[in-house]
Write a structure and sequence with these properties.
Elements: H1 5-23, H2 25-45, H3 66-77, H4 87-103, H5 112-124, H6 127-148, H7 155-240, H8 242-268, H9 289-298, E1 302-308, H10 316-337, E2 342-349, E3 353-360, H11 370-374, H12 380-391, E4 395-400, E5 406-413
Parallel strand pairs: 1-2
Antiparallel strand pairs: 2-3, 3-5, 4-5
Helix pairs in contact: 1-2, 2-3, 3-4, 4-5, 4-6, 5-7, 6-7, 7-8, 7-10, 9-10, 10-12
Length: 453
Amino acid sequence: MSGHPLFARLGRLGQRLRQADRDHPWVLDAAVVAAVFLVFCLPDLVPGHVEGGPREHRFVLARLPLPQTVALQAGLVLPLLWRRRRPTAAFAAIMAVFVLQWSLDVGLRADAALLVALYSLALHGRLRHLAWSCAAMAVAVALVAVAVSGGGLPVGDALFFLFSAATAAVALGIAVRVRRAQLAGLRERAARLEIERDQRSRLAAVTERTRVAREMHDIIGHNLSVIVTLADGGAYAAQAAPERGREALLLIGDTSRQALGELRRMLGVLRDQGDQSAEFTPQPGISDLDGLCARIRAAGPQVVYTAAGALDQPDRGVQLMAYRIVQEALTNTLKHAGPETRAHVTLTVGPDRLRVRVEDTGPPGGSRWHGRAHGHGHGHGLAGIRERAALYGGTVTAGPGPGAGWTVEAVLHLTPDPDLTPGLDLTPGLDLTPGLDLTPGLDLTPDPTGGPT
């Protein structure tokens, strides 16, 4: 029934009334006072009003002149204007007038205002004040029960009726108070969850941008380095050996097409596919290292690739890590040592870890490049290698090797530590799970100082 249009309209009406009450709180308080006056005060002001009810339950009380009656009614009703702002003070004022009235042996229908004040105290007041108010109410109710017992109404019946009315007022006030507290807690929780959802979305976007930037860096940085080297060699060979120049152009075309395919695959996962299912190409792994070394050899360097161990044992994430580390190291070798260097790639798969080692002989002539020797700690590519290894609890060491060469060695654990890789997904699909703090903004331009990219 909660979905019925009538309940929806009533809900909207309740929202408008609450908004109006927040804008003009005195209107509701004045309406309550007016309602109490019309229902309970006006009958006592009508001349010649006859008491109803069975004769055996009638009791005779004193009647005051009209001015005194109006004054007592005003003392009972007007404090209700402050029943929500000062509930304790309003209850105390009405209780004082109530005791004064019954001390004069006068009964008024406006005494119902005391129940309204008790309800308001239970709803808006402090709970420690409610206990004292209930005690005062019990004493006053006992005095009234004794006063009306002379009219034929037993004291027990009077006490039962009056205590039931007071208990109902307190119970209703506490129930509404608990309900409002629950609704306020739900609204606060909903607002907090909305904020957390927005924060998770922003963190997920930053994480995904960082992951895509790293992949773009690996793709563009490696392939452009190979293309630039081939272009330089082809321009030199175009005059001396035209066939070699033509071969360099063909290799540039192949490398460019491969880079374009990888870029299309990477950007394709970012494009909204609608209802169409995305087609993904598997990410490179250990089995693709032969092709990577062949492309580097085509650019000039002599690359020797050695692999040992169960190469199929690592999962796709570890294999992608190893491939990117070798790719970055060979790109740096080609960039800083030149096309006439020699590189040795060693990959060893053990029972619980994978070791990658890439070492080169440096530039020809045995002269160490100063910028590379002292700038290795500032390159984005080397920082990316360290981040990749850290995701699998591994370590990376990079520095000068024997002679003028350079050595990069990385150790990866085959089982990633869940504490180090929260929410990381290295599959072709996008991973929007937050929790990984990565450094955004990878620089895709070559390092002008000559250090590793």
